[in-house]
Amino acid sequence: MLIIPMGTDAPIYHWPKATVAMIVLNTVLFFLVPPHSHHVDEEGNEIASATLYDRFALTLGDGLHPIQWVTHNFLHIGIGHLVGNMVFLWAFGLVVEGKLGMIRFLLIYLLIGTLHGALTQTLLLRSGLTGSAVGASAVIFGLLAICMVWAPHNEVNCTWILWFGFRVFVNQFDVKYVWVAAFYIAEQVLGLFLSGLTGRAAVTELGHLSGALWGTVIGLGMLKLKLVDCEGWDVISLWKKNRRLAKDWKRRGEQLDRQKKAERAPRHQVTAGRDGGDEFSDEDRAAAASKKLGKLIDMGDYAAAISFYDRSARTLADWPPAHELLDRIKAMHARKAEVDSLPLMRDYCRKYPESATKMRLKLAQVLLRDRQKPVAALRVLAEIPEGTLSGQLEAARVGMIRQAEKMREDGVLELEGED
């Protein structure tokens, strides 16, 4: 059976010019620098001769040769070796170049190959092995590892072809990059274990794992340095999102009893005034409510704070004013309580629509990132008047719309009426 990667559903922002160029270059060099390391003299006897292939392949167990760290990535031992590598170069280069563009992709391509060559030649320097290693497969494993880091839940579309007698069966299937990476990396680890870490077979697995190692390091490094935008679907963002959701559910469970107790409390307390007998005025009660709300937020008791806010907002007219509500929202955001602040943000957008443009963007972001609510986020984004955002904020709005639509296409379930 033959499996051919054809395309991907990952967001692509650059046409893969460099990926195609690398496929062409590898193919041309296969014919210009063929894998032959012997010649025949006039009498027909085979003689040793150092060809270009021998000079630029990665020599094993015979010193360090920095030029070979680069050149061996462009040589192949046979047509099957070449075709197999180029097919998967297309599948993984498509995603990496699609996010980075041509120049940065080429730099990463050469960096992975060079680091792999240096590591492999250094590790096998005193191994006693002879011969050489060639091929782009280490770079391809590096690109696969980057896909695993940047787009684990995106899928590669594959076509499989099966010959059975005189019949040919063709079909398609999709598989996530994280599972592709897990399968091939596990296969190399198993092969390295079965080979006993010695012999020529181990060199292949070692080279592939070396490429995957450097690809993982580069992929994670570029994420941490914010040199690539994965729109929140990379492994770091997904891990943080899952961690926030787990902490949120735990905190909500711990605060459930206090929330119920707060809901059973009187709506407001009537207190005697200074002269003994007069009730507090509406202004006094509003000020007291604002003070108590701020205190609950400062204490980190967000469930009680939201419950108290709901009761007070129903009983006090025009409370809280815009500046106080905005200050409470900012205070909760400063304490990483963005999910808990959703009722306050929604009320701000409803009560003060003329000054709520940026608040709507933040509300939509929290609904998408933390609550997995694409439909609710799209409703909020639709309320932003056209032409009211700057270039950067407009780009953020468009990106969130695209993310929400992608989540809907992926079948994210959302109960109508929530958020």
CATH topology of the largest domain, what is it called?
Answer: Rhomboid-like fold
Mean pLDDT: 85
**Level-1 CATH class name of the largest domain:** Mainly Alpha
Helix content: 55-70%
How many DSSP helices?
A: 16
Would you identify the regions where 5 or more consecutive residues have pLDDT less than 50? Answer: 266-278
Strand order of the largest sheet: 1-6-7
Largest sheet: 3 strands, antiparallel
Instruction: Report the span from N to C terminus.
Output: 49 Å
The CATH architecture of the largest domain: Up-down Bundle
Q: How many structural domains?
A: 2
Structural class: mainly alpha
> What order do the helices and strands follow?
EHEEHEHHHEHEEHHHHHHHHHH
How many runs of DSSP E, i.e. beta strands? 7
Percent strand equals: 5-15%
- Given the C-alpha coordinates, what overall shape results? elongated
What's the alpha carbon Rg, rounded to whole Å? 31 Å
Outline the structure in words.
- This protein has 419 residues and is mostly helical.
- It folds into two domains: 2-224, Rhomboid-like fold (Up-down Bundle); 235-409, Tetratricopeptide repeat domain (Serine Threonine Protein Phosphatase 5, Tetratricopeptide repeat, Alpha Horseshoe), CATH 1.25.40.10.
- It contains 16 helices and seven strands.
- It has helices at 17-32, 52-56, 66-71, 79-100, 102-123, 137-150, 177-194, 199-224, 235-263, 282-299, 302-315, 322-334, 342-351, 357-369, 374-382, 391-409, and strands at 2-8, 38-40, 46-48, 58-59, 132-133, 155-164, 167-176.
- The strands form three sheets. Strands 1-6-7 form a three-stranded antiparallel β-sheet. It has a two-stranded antiparallel ribbon with strand order 2-3. A two-stranded antiparallel sheet has the order 4-5.
- A hairpin with a 5-residue loop joins strand 2 and strand 3 (46-48).
- Helix 4 (79-100) packs across helix 5 (102-123), helix 10 (282-299) runs antiparallel to helix 11 and helix 14 (357-369) runs parallel beside helix 16.
